């Protein structure tokens, strides 16, 4: 099939990935191409040149100084986002039928959803987050033109009051995230932001008497300075934003991967990556984590319970790493995810709805 993938215009689909949305789009594009589909990815400039990418950049526009003095003038970044997606959607309205069989939207912007009814080809939107007001408003004006999938059952339930979405669990490349020997420190990976709460992972590992290594981009520098850096020491190290190869080595050597969401985690890609490396997970039972951390692959505890997480680390360390890896290959692989999306595309091409 001819597939158009729409990603973020701000964060490149390239390593080291800014987050799970960019990682998922990269895996999906690469595997779809490998399975014989014609794929075009609209994404931020500097995305992986190995992918069939077209830069999702706004047309040249600079508001006048007079207009920007208006008290209600939007931020220039907001206008750049708006024009980038408006330009793309108008182009798809004009020529989409000549180039694509389906448009698969992974952006968090409202315009692809709001303008879906104008497209000459079906559009499916994957929901990567809990409900957002701009997306809810786009659904309200779109006339039900877009179909929806969600990255987990948890995320689908969160949106149930607005739309019906078919759950398609995210997947990881189990060939890239290879099993490792384990036995090393506890590891925490992800975006260093308040809603991911890595500082609680440090507290729990220290309470369990274990060394912890943290890796990820510092997207909330104020939070990192206030909550995380003061907790670092000989038993708690921050190693920065690693590419997938180095991250896979780190996870493969880890005894346990700790996941500490302070919000309703829509999926929890870092847990799936760890389990693909054979590393069991100790996590707060929040969001979609109960869907992906099965019995024997890790231990869940009550949200925000640091003492409970410390106990979960000790229990998870006793899991059979081979069983953890088998679960990831069977349930959490990108190949399984892509096969499910192929079913969605086929149903849309035949005039059916994704759900």
Care to describe what's here?
By secondary structure, the chain is of the alpha/beta class. It folds into 2 domains: 2-171 and 334-349, 3-Layer(aba) Sandwich (Rossmann fold), CATH 3.40.50; 186-331, Rossmann fold, CATH 3.40.50. It contains 14 helices and 13 strands. It has helices at 20-34, 65-68, 76-99, 111-114, 133-141, 153-158, 198-207, 221-228, 244-253, 269-276, 289-292, 306-316, 321-331, 334-349; strands at residues 2-6, 38-43, 53-55, 102-105, 123-127, 147-150, 166-167, 186-189, 212-215, 236-238, 256-259, 281-284, 298-301. It has a 7-stranded parallel beta sheet with strand order 3-2-1-4-5-6-7. Strands 10-9-8-11-12-13 form a 6-stranded parallel beta sheet, with helices on both faces. α8 links the parallel β9 and β10. α1 (20-34) packs across α14, α7 (198-207) crosses α12 and α10 (269-276) crosses α13. The radius of gyration is 21 Å and the shape is globular. It starts with a strand and ends in a 6-residue tail after the last helix.
């Amino acid at each position: 099939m001819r597939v158009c993938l729409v990603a973020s215009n701000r964060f490149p689909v390239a390593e080291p990935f800014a987050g799970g949305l960019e990682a998922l789009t990269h895996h999906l594009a690469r595997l779809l191409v490998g399975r014989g589909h014609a794929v075009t990815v609209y994404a931020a400039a500097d995305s992986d040149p190995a992918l069939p990418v077209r830069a999702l950049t706004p047309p040249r526009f600079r508001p006048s100084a007079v207009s920007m003095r208006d008290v209600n003038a939007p931020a220039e970044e907001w206008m750049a986002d708006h024009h980038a997606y408006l330009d793309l959607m108008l182009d798809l309205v004009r020529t989409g039928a000549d180039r694509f069989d389906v448009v698969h939207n992974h952006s968090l912007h409202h315009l692809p959803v709001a303008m879906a009814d104008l497209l000459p080809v079906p559009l499916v939107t994957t929901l990567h987050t809990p409900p957002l007001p701009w997306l809810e408003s786009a659904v309200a004006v779109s006339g039900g033109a877009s179909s929806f999938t969600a990255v987990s059952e948890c995320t689908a339930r969160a949106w149930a009051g607005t739309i019906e979405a078919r759950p398609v669990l995210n997947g990881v490349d189990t060939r890239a995230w290879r099993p490792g020997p384990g036995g090393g420190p506890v590891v925490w990976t992800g975006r260093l932001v308040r809603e991911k709460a890595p500082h609680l992972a440090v507290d729990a590992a220290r309470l369990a008497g274990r060394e912890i290594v943290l890796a990820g981009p510092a997207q909330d520098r104020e939070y990192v300075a206030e909550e995380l850096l003061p907790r670092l020491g000989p038993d708690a190290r921050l190693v920065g934003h690693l590419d997938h190869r180095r991250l896979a080595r780190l996870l493969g050597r880890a005894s346990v991967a700790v996941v500490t969401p302070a919000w309703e985690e829509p999926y929890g890609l870092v847990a799936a990556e760890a389990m693909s490396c054979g590393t069991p997970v100790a996590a707060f039972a929040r969001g979609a984590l109960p869907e992906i951390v099965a019995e024997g692959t890790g231990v869940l505890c009550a949200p925000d319970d640091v003492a409970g997480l410390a106990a979960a680390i000790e229990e998870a360390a006793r899991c059979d790493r081979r069983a953890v890896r088998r679960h990831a290959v069977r349930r959490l692989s990108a190949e399984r995810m892509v096969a499910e999306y192929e079913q969605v595309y086929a149903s849309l091409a035949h005039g059916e709805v994704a759900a």
